[in-house]
Amino acid sequence: MNLADKPTVFSGAQPTGQLTLGNYLGALQNWVAMQEEYNCLFCVVDLHALTVRQDPQALREQIYDLAAVYLACGIDPAKSTIFVQSQVPAHAELAWILSTFTQMGELERMTQYKDKSQRHRTNINAGLFTYPTLMAADILLYGTHKVPVGADQKQHLELSRDVATRFNGAFKPIFQVPDPLIASSGSARVKDLQEPSKKMSKSAESDLAKVMLLDEPKTILKKFKKAVTDSQGVIAYDEEAQPGVANLLNIWCAATNNSLENALEHFSHNMYGKLKVESGEAVNAILAPVQERYRDIIADRGELIKILDNGAEVARQRAEEMMVKVVDVLGLPPRRSL
User: Fold this and answer.
1) Where are the beta strands (DSSP E) in 113-257?
2) What is the pLDDT of residues 7-42, one digit of tens each?
3) Is 190 within 8 Å of 199 (Cβ atoms)?
4) Active-site annotation holds for 276
5) Which one of 31, 36, 102, 133 is most buried, counting C-beta atoms within 10 A?
6) Which of 6, 79, 202, 222 is flagged as catalytic?
7) How do the residues of the chain divide into helix, strand and coil, expressed in percent and rounded to 5?
8) Pick the catalytic residue: 146, 199, 210, 276?
9) Which residues contact 119 (CB under 8 A, 6 or more apart)?
10) Closest Cα to residue 318, out of 170, 180, 161, 144?
11) pLDDT at 262
12) Residues of the chain below pLDDT 50
């Protein structure tokens, strides 16, 4: 299948701290697999990160770190377009245009805005409010067919669909209306090691709650040893009664490519300590090659920048093709395609 014949997928992550084990098992591994079937664009969405005040020097390093992690996890620049959002100005340009097709009430209903405005009371800026419109621009700019989404992003994707439909209805079909790409049933649902009723998040307050992709092996093992379980003394899979044990079983299965049935047989000794240690060891085993590749990639900053520059050039050309159509239907002065 030629690149032009493949449906387009767009996804990205913010360069605000390291990615977690949950990001790796639940998203990045799926991104790698998608490269064979889809025309993929994977973006470091640095403009989104600006809704919270960032240290400029640290932010720049985090942008390169995240791009290096993408590559280390298996995103191949020969198969996918990898780029930094701010290096494609059309993202911000289209976001402004789409904001005129987005209703205030729609943005007010966004649960992430409500949550973040509670956590950042001293900096409830307009960007925090219009964040979903920029996300819509990210997606619609490339004629995206499918967007990998988790439960926390479904609402934003629905807004992107609504805005695309509204724009198309006002003029003519310019934007592809994107569909969610739901992770396979085998994708790991990695939960917080201290509060296993919640998903693992890089914003968790406790370091023991989250395993970061670049954590030292001994640190990872320590976090698993301190993982919350329960007092039942039985290793069974019950997400409601034993969420901590269920979380460790899910992680061990994902890291060792074993079924839940095999896991329950393997841990039939009912020893929580062994479950914790073996889960940590299995995670270390799958992250070791990722960390080794990351160290090699980040050590060659020149090559990393070259990959991102090449990706940004491809993205800019694709984005400009869309912007030519958008400004034409809006009645703005015509522009030449790059």
Assistant:
1) 146-148, 179-181
2) 999 999 999 988 999 999 989 999 999 999 999 999
3) yes
4) no
5) 133
6) 202
7) 60, 10, 35
8) 199
9) none
10) 144
11) 96
12) 1, 185-186
Catalytic residue selected from 6, 79, 116, 222: 116
Q: Give backbone dihedrals phi and psi of 178, rounded to 5 degrees, phi first.
A: -75, 150
Burial class (CB in 10 A: 0-12, 13-18, 19+), 257: exposed
Per the CB < 8 A criterion, the answer to whether 252 and 263 are in contact is yes
Q: Is 226 a catalytic residue?
A: no
Q: What is the C-alpha separation between 59 and 206, in angstroms, rounded?
A: 22
| Overall pTM surpassing 0.85 (yes/no) | yes
Domains detected in the chain:
3-187+300-330 (3.40.50.620), 207-295 (1.10.240.10)
Instruction: Write the pLDDT tens digit of every residue in 242-288.
Output: 999 999 999 999 999 999 999 999 999 999 999 999 999 999 999 99
Catalytic site includes residue 223 = no
